[in-house]
Design goal:
single chain; 348 residues; alpha/beta; D-Maltodextrin-Binding Protein, domain 2; 16 helices
Length: 348
């Protein structure tokens, strides 16, 4: 058994200080992707909620999309209740019966502040993320300003970091090739557009260092292993708070929401919805944005934030310079085919 000190240091449990092995069916279990984002959820939401309610709350991580969720639901052995999930996984999970369908307006009063188009039958948005171009300002006095610059290896020689997946990488390639953000998904839905994206990646393939976890591009930029990289804006901000000097290039950012979902058959559905309501309120969303600069989804939260925080948010008006909103339905329809083609291309 782990020592109490190790359990506390892990950050996996709080309030009643009950380790996961001792958790009962009454313990609400919340799941995110780890790293700086999960730490922000913990500080802004989970710890204060558990302390205020005097309730047990268990924490876990998930970086494999629907894989574990499907296994749990189909086996009828749920270990999780409330899970952070990408939008395309919400769509698939909802269509295949893995997630609870919820009348959010009725079940989560704070959701009434959100625009109705943001709500999914199975998911309530939690934040707006952005993938941006970044570089170390201490290493480059004049850095790249667009994805087209990212491909300019004569002016900026050295390795580039990109995520090892078709999603977002193909969009970046098309924008680098001069396709306006408004035309990216229309073109990418065609064979000619897909061929164009892969042809653009061919030009840079020898200089790409592929990352698979959000912490990797930050580490590589700081060490000089890559000269520039795609990265999540919240990871960049967290690194800069620790003394790094990483730039955030907002032009042509790819952004989108991430969601809270309740697994089908959760015995803690009511408790999960109460926590979602707490996390969706403007006051707590303000605290979250101050903890890590991902955009609040409650419009009332931005009015509570100071200019220094707003300057770092992907959905702040001044940072919306030719942005690309990730098209969830496109990836729900095309992910399998394009990811298989991407994997074959990487392996060649």
């Amino acid at each position: 058994m782990p020592s109490l000190a190790r359990v506390l240091a892990s950050g996996l449990v709080f309030s009643a200080l009950v380790p996961p092995l001792a958790a009962s069916a009454r313990d609400l279990t919340v799941v995110s992707v780890g790293g700086a984002l999960q730490e922000a959820f913990r500080q802004a939401y989970w710890q204060p909620y558990a302390a205020a309610r005097g309730e047990r709350l268990v924490e876990d991580t998930n970086v494999v999309g629907l894989t574990k969720v499907r296994a749990m639901v189909e086996a009828g052995q749920l270990q999780w209740d409330l899970v952070q999930m990408d939008e395309e996984d919400v769509v698939v999970g909802c269509d295949t019966g893995l997630l609870e369908r919820i009348d959010w307006r009725a079940a989560v009063p704070a959701s009434r502040d959100l625009p109705p188009e943001m709500l999914n039958p199975c998911g309530l948005p939690t934040m707006i993320w952005a993938k941006v171009l970044s570089y170390d300002e201490r290493r480059l006095s004049q850095g790249p300003r667009s994805w087209a610059d990212f491909w300019d290896t004569r002016r900026w020689p050295g390795k580039r970091g990109l995520r090892k997946q078709a999603k977002q990488t193909l969009e970046i390639a098309l924008m680098a090739d001069g396709v306006p953000p408004s035309e990216v998904y229309k073109l990418l839905a065609t064979r000619a557009g897909q061929d164009r994206a892969f042809a653009k990646l061919d030009q840079l393939k020898a200089d790409i260092q592929w990352w698979e976890a959000g912490a990797q591009p930050i580490e590589w930029l700081a060490s000089g292993a890559v000269v520039m990289s795609s990265a999540y804006n919240g990871r960049i901000a967290a690194a800069n708070r620790e003394g790094k000097s990483l730039a955030t290039v907002w032009k042509q950012q790819i952004n989108g929401p991430t969601y809270w979902v309740v697994l089908k058959g959760s015995p803690n559905k009511a408790q999960a919805l109460a926590l979602v309501d707490y996390m969706t309120g403007a006051a707590r969303q303000k605290v979250f944005a101050e903890t890590i600069p991902y955009g609040p989804v409650n419009p009332k939260a931005q009015a509570l934030l100071g200019k220094p925080v707003l300057a770092m948010l992907p959905n702040a008006p001044q940072n919306l310079d030719a942005p690309l909103l990730q098209n969830t339905q496109f990836w729900a329809d095309h992910l399998d085919d394009l990811q298989q083609r991407f994997a074959r291309w990487v392996g060649r």
